[in-house]
């Protein structure tokens, strides 16, 4: 007649667990979320934040999805060539083990890029921020090319300290762009691509998407013109 099993077992006595969590002496964790369409500078913002933390003496690590391997596997890269070493992983729960338990314990800040690809985002953030006292900074797409919720990025809003929605610039009119338009008629579920496949658009041009896709195909042909200044991020849209 004991069992009141909490799903989260804190440092109780019993099975020799000892100090598994040690909540008392840890700093409180934080969760910060950066969302927006493709080419909005999410990765740049994430890197800036993580670097600032590093510069102020905190121990940092960066994680990205191993799904997108078009660019450097072990670094996060922005369009302006800024690089940061990272762990490319299929899921987040494997991070602690891969990184090493001792090293993980000393870690203050964890950056996560392409967060829409991680199915275990919510569980990881809960554990890392609530129990382990980490500051988590997440960058990801809030919506896919059909403006549907993407992965579990929106699921972490309720556990976030702050949410920042960045905008890009509409490639057709220059206004602020909130959405990602797929330029091609491709409808398969997962399509990884950069500015050859996707572009940021304002609401009006998103709504007129079909017309736009045709127009762009005519102007663009295989993609040379519109590649100038919008390579902020290369991530996939489902
Ligand atoms: Zn527009």
UniProtKB/TrEMBL annotation:
<keyword id="KW-0862">Zinc</keyword>
<dbReference type="GO" id="GO:0042802">
    <property type="term" value="F:identical protein binding"/>
</dbReference>
<keyword id="KW-0237">DNA synthesis</keyword>
<comment type="similarity">
    <text>Belongs to the thymidine kinase family.</text>
</comment>
<keyword id="KW-0067">ATP-binding</keyword>
<dbReference type="InterPro" id="IPR020633">
    <property type="entry name" value="Thymidine_kinase_CS"/>
</dbReference>
<dbReference type="InterPro" id="IPR001267">
    <property type="entry name" value="Thymidine_kinase"/>
</dbReference>
<keyword id="KW-0808">Transferase</keyword>
<keyword id="KW-0418">Kinase</keyword>
<dbReference type="GO" id="GO:0046104">
    <property type="term" value="P:thymidine metabolic process"/>
</dbReference>
<protein>
    <recommendedName>
        <fullName>Thymidine kinase</fullName>
        <ecNumber>2.7.1.21</ecNumber>
    </recommendedName>
</protein>
<dbReference type="GO" id="GO:0004797">
    <property type="term" value="F:thymidine kinase activity"/>
</dbReference>
<comment type="pathway">
    <text>Pyrimidine metabolism.</text>
</comment>
<dbReference type="GO" id="GO:0006950">
    <property type="term" value="P:response to stress"/>
</dbReference>
<keyword id="KW-0547">Nucleotide-binding</keyword>
<feature type="region of interest" description="Disordered">
    <location>
        <begin position="1"/>
        <end position="22"/>
    </location>
</feature>
<dbReference type="Pfam" id="PF00265">
    <property type="entry name" value="TK"/>
</dbReference>
<dbReference type="GO" id="GO:0071897">
    <property type="term" value="P:DNA biosynthetic process"/>
</dbReference>
<comment type="pathway">
    <text>Purine metabolism.</text>
</comment>
<dbReference type="GO" id="GO:0005524">
    <property type="term" value="F:ATP binding"/>
</dbReference>
<keyword id="KW-0479">Metal-binding</keyword>
<feature type="compositionally biased region" description="Polar residues">
    <location>
        <begin position="1"/>
        <end position="12"/>
    </location>
</feature>
<dbReference type="GO" id="GO:0046872">
    <property type="term" value="F:metal ion binding"/>
</dbReference>
<dbReference type="InterPro" id="IPR027417">
    <property type="entry name" value="P-loop_NTPase"/>
</dbReference>
